[in-house]
Design a protein that fits this description.
The protein is α/β, with parallel strands linked by helices. The protein contains 21 helices and 16 strands. The strands form 3 sheets. It has a 7-stranded mixed sheet. The chain has a 6-stranded parallel sheet with strand order 8-11-10-9-12-13, sandwiched between helices. A 3-stranded antiparallel sheet has the order 14-15-16, with helices on one face. Helix 8 packs antiparallel against helix 9, helix 9 crosses helix 13 and helix 19 runs antiparallel to helix 20.
């Protein structure tokens, strides 16, 4: 907690509170008026908004944030005027000797079954335009039994965000738990002791020591089963569940590991110079280096690549960089999730030794004018046709820069981005870069949806509709395995998409090496799909094994399940 406001020094400056007017008849204004009277202070109010509060020495504005400026304007200069907002600065009260007082307490509506709010021992954030205003805020707080501490104006938003997460969001989560328990016939009262014990454990031990449950202990099967049931019973909560699962994994990883596997402690570096200096010692010792390039917002798909790299290389580097040059839509770039702290913890938990997280100007300095451009069908079709050639120019350029910066022996990519893999292989071969490209299988949610950092942006209905992509690809697989033609297999996939009203940008059967469309299923092929589902553009693919030759029939699918 920040340092508390000192009793003695504040009382020397302002010895008494005097007459207090409370403006605002809501929950907090009513509760504070009663508590101040109980403390022996003369109180006017709670008064209605627009009250002038004549004769008061101190005016407390217990009004909504948006009404603070107008309520303050109704008060003639003279008294100390303060608001009770945690989020709002003192700027709306510049005409007054201004302060703020924000009790870290939720105040419910008063009623026959609701006791008066007890402010005794509750921390309260205070601020003032000068020492006298700060002292008034401190004296008011202590009169109420609050424990005042000062929050600098530049830290106010962060402080208030923490307070909202700790209170408002907690209630939201318990509301979700209440709805989910209700679907199983369990009353909310059964959850109350658990919630209270959890909060008390957190208060006593801190977040890491208090953390329990299947995510923390690595019980993926149970987490997957939970996800399926939440998707079915409370689908509007699946985005919250996914985000919290990721954050909990990161917290558990930080608690469980002081040092990541494979190295004497994981390091995060920001510059190419730091990166090369850190890797130089490993190379001098003859260690092999693997690179896993990512754009962050790590999920199990990324972690599977990191684990594969850990199993086959001495040193694992994970890059976390949202590459601006491969986005054709500025809104998509702005909306792309950025969760670096969680990413670093998750990368460490999967076995990374080094995270390279550069700023954009580290990879694209002022005057940057060089582009790596792969031409031909591998970039002109599919994603290239729908997102523009610039997308793969951005991919090829940033991957080349990362490969030059890291100089890995091997780089790992995911099969879900099949066209990206083909483009990278082409660039590496054409430029003669001394690196081996490995591809890990697509990792899917329990219901079949390919894992993507964008999935968290899907609402409940769109999340359900998104499953049509994987169903469509399975339909193409099944039709091809049954001996259908390429055209008929594609039609089977289109019918699945139509069930949920999803219009694909493309659903194509293509050669895995060249991405040229195939008309005859006489050898393994890729089925690739892309579609806009609500606010999110999704892609997926599977390997198609036609039933025409024994060799083809025995080929193993890539990322199909």
């Amino acid at each position: 907690m920040p340092p508390t406001v000192d009793d003695a020094s504040s009382n020397q400056r302002v010895s008494r509170v005097g007459r207090v007017a409370v403006v605002g008849r809501g929950r907090l204004g009513t509760a504070l008026s009663g508590a101040l009277r109980a403390a022996g202070i003369t109180v006017d109010g709670p008064l209605g908004r627009g009250a002038t509060a004549d004769g008061a020495d101190v005016v407390l504005l217990a009004v909504p944030d948006a009404a603070i400026r107008a309520a303050g304007a109704a008060i003639a200069p003279g008294p100390f005027v303060g608001h009770l907002s945690g989020a709002t600065s003192l700027a709306p009260l510049t005409a007054h000797h201004a302060f703020s007082l924000h009790p870290l307490m939720t105040v419910p509506a008063q009623g026959p079954d609701v006791p008066a709010t007890d402010f005794q021992g509750v921390p309260a954030a205070v601020a003032g335009v000068d020492e006298d205003a700060l002292a008034v805020a401190g004296n008011l707080a202590r009169a109420l039994g609050l424990v005042p501490f000062e929050v600098p104006e530049e830290d106010r938003v962060a402080y208030h965000a923490a307070a909202c997460v700790a209170s408002n969001f907690l209630v939201t989560l318990e509301g979700i738990a209440e709805r989910l328990a209700g679907t199983a016939g369990v009353d909310r009262a059964a959850l109350v002791p658990l919630v209270r014990a959890t909060v008390e454990n957190w208060a006593r031990l801190g977040a890491r020591e208090a953390l329990t449950g299947p995510v923390a202990r690595g019980d993926a099967a149970t987490v997957d089963a939970h996800r399926v049931e939440i998707s079915r019973r409370v689908p509007e909560a699946i985005g919250v569940f996914d985000a919290l699962t990721q954050a909990t994994r990161a917290l558990a990883a930080g608690a469980a590991r002081e040092e990541p596997a494979g190295g004497p402690g994981m390091t995060t570096v920001r510059t190419v110079a730091e990166l090369r200096a850190t890797l130089a010692a490993h190379r001098a010792a003859g260690r092999t280096v693997a690179l896993v390039p990512t754009m962050g917002a790590l999920h199990e798909g990324h972690l599977s690549l990191i684990r594969a790299a850990r199993a086959t290389s001495d040193v694992v580097v994970v890059s976390v960089f949202v590459n601006p040059t491969q986005f054709d839509d500025p809104a998509d770039l702005a909306a792309y999730p950025r969760t670096e702290a969680a990413d670093v913890a998750l990368a460490a938990s999967a076995g990374a030794d080094l995270v390279f997280a550069p700023a954009p100007d580290e990879l694209y300095p002022t005057g940057f004018a060089t582009t790596v451009s792969v031409t031909g069908p591998v970039t002109a079709t599919l994603e290239g046709a729908h997102r523009g050639r610039g997308h793969f120019d951005g991919v090829a350029t940033v991957v080349t820069k990362l490969l030059i910066a890291v100089a890995p022996d091997v780089a790992w990519f995911g099969a879900k981005d099949a066209q990206q893999v083909v483009v990278v292989r082409r660039a590496v071969a054409d430029l003669g870069l001394p690196v081996r490209i490995e591809v890990g299988p697509t990792v899917r949610e329990p219901d079949g949806l390919a894992m993507s950092s964008r999935n968290v942006r899907l609402g409940a209905d769109d999340r359900r509709r998104a499953l049509s992509l994987s169903r469509a690809l399975r339909a193409v697989q099944d039709a091809a395995a049954a001996g259908s033609t390429a055209a008929d297999a594609r039609e089977a996939g289109l019918r699945e998409l139509a069930v949920d009203g999803v219009e694909p940008e493309y659903l194509t059967l293509a050669d895995p090496a060249t991405l040229e469309p195939v008309a005859t299923l006489d050898r393994p092929a890729l089925a690739l799909v892309a579609a806009q589902v609500g606010p999110v553009r999704l892609i997926d693919n599977v390997t198609i094994t036609p039933a025409i030759t024994p060799a083809a029939a025995g080929a193993a699918p890539t990322g199909a399940r």
